[in-house]
Specification:
224 residues
């Protein structure tokens, strides 16, 4: 099925419906409550309606894909704030990426990761997740590298439960995260999967400004 979602906001509303059973644990952050964490940039407009529907605080887990040097859309791994890294060794070897090329990509993407972390959060502290149910949201899963490194980073912060949630993921994708999540939720598990964009009528790249607007709106709504 193609164009299952009108755009990321529509995908978020449909994902929120699939996550409605978790709404009972929502509340202020900490003490066993619910927190929604988005992978920017594309995960933020999906996560915003999820957080609103579940009445949960929204924060970001900043992750950067490590693209193959001569094919940047192909992920050979990912990095996240705090130094977490996940490498897809099979991709690196099959594409002939050298150690020097890999190091250069990691250095470049680390600079961008730090820039985005400062831009999106500013002076706002990270939402606490210890003893919480944390729902990690992206606009879809292809290789799973970004989601995996995000989950590795999150686990170090000691949440009580971790749920990975996306509008679309390839059939069988949930098995890739068995060691990192307590549950995996996807609206669609298509047997034929070429890329996330094929399931969106509008998959326009999300901008930094859109991310900041949505995060500011979520923080204002969560304010007492």
């Amino acid at each position: 099925m193609f164009n299952r979602f009108a755009d990321r906001a529509d995908a978020g509303r449909q994902l929120a419906d699939a996550l409605r059973d978790y709404a009972g644990s929502a509340g202020s952050a900490g003490n066993g409550s619910l927190v929604v964490l988005a992978l920017p940039r594309g995960g933020v407009p999906v996560a915003y309606p999820v957080a609103r529907a579940l009445r949960a605080p929204l924060d970001v887990l900043v992750v950067r894909k490590l693209g193959v040097p001569f094919d940047p859309e192909l992920a050979m791994g990912a990095i996240a704030s705090g130094g977490a890294i996940h490498l897809q060794r099979g991709v690196i070897e099959s594409m002939g990426v050298t150690d020097a090329q890999l190091a250069a990509v990691i250095a470049r993407e680390t600079i961008e990761l730090n820039r985005r972390d400062a831009l999106y959060r500013g002076t706002w502290p990270a939402v606490p997740v210890d003893a919480c149910t944390a729902i990690v949201v992206d606009d879809g899963i292809a290789t799973g590298a970004s989601m995996r490194v995000a989950l590795q980073t999150l686990r170090a912060r000691r949440p009580a439960r971790v749920i990975a949630a996306v509008p679309v993921a390839p059939a069988g994708a949930a098995r890739r995260f068995d060691d990192l999540v307590d549950a995996f939720v996807a609206v669609e598990h298509p047997p034929t999967f070429f890329g996330i964009s094929q399931f969106y009528a509008d998959f326009t790249q999300t901008t930094d400004e859109e991310v900041r607007v949505l995060l500011d709106a979520a923080r204002a709504e969560a304010a007492p």
